[in-house]
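Q: Fold this one first, please.
A: Sequence and structure below.
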Amino acid sequence: MKLSTRTRYGVRLMVELGLNYGKKPIFLKDIARRENISEKYLSIIVIRLRGAGLVSSVRGVNGGYNLAKDPVEITLIEVVTVLEGNCHLVHCVKNSSACSRATQCASRDLWILVCDSITETLGSVTLDWLIKKQRQKAIVKLKKK
């Protein structure tokens, strides 16, 4: 199982915006440079996040992007669902009619359990928690220098 690049980069984008929360908007090109991600690719990701109400944009010379909500109010399941969709490891988890064996299949029950666990974990982690982890890692990196 592997999350898409879109989701991995989207989470990194949200952390960068969260690190800047409460300050002036930040340019996508600055995030792209710091995170070593294509600005064009980030612009596609930010459209989805803005459409979901997680990111806001400001036009003009002093424009850029901000989080639309406090990082404490944003869970990772929101971000991942916007960028990845709901968790379905196999087709029959989303649509039991995709498989004639779905009602008698113990494996399907396992995949549902795994998806539920992933959803629950991502739902319990806030962007604020991830931002704090990122700050801790930056401090450790500075101490090593």
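Q: Good. Now the second chain.
A: Here it is, same layout.
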Amino acid sequence: MPMPIDIKDKNFLVADDSSTMRRVVRSCLNRYGASDQNIAEAGDGLEALTILQAKAIDCVLADWNMPNCDGLQLLTKMRQIDRYKHTPFLIFTTESTKEDILTALRAGVNAYMAKPITPELVAKKLNEVFS
């Protein structure tokens, strides 16, 4: 799936306690034009918050289930920071019940992705949040 929107100049934060999943998401972003220099990685929500304080991020892709601070807690804390009130937040998870999706959307998630993540799914969701 071609990427109609240009993501090469956007800064991304990928938060997941699995280094394999971070690598998968990074690879998806690279495939559509994001450079490694524009992708920060965090192993949990607390590390992600530290990165958000230190550099400007245009989009966050986070796992729901992480230690210390999960994806929804990260989103809630991120929305309390003025410059991140409207920053696109994509959550991915193995939780895919209708109730889970509604919980995420009520919390302010811009896009919800059930694992496994594919480059096409990432591209589709990025197109939705940046259009």
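Q: Anything worth noting on the second one?
A: Helices lie at 19-31, 45-54, 71-79, 98-107, 119-130.
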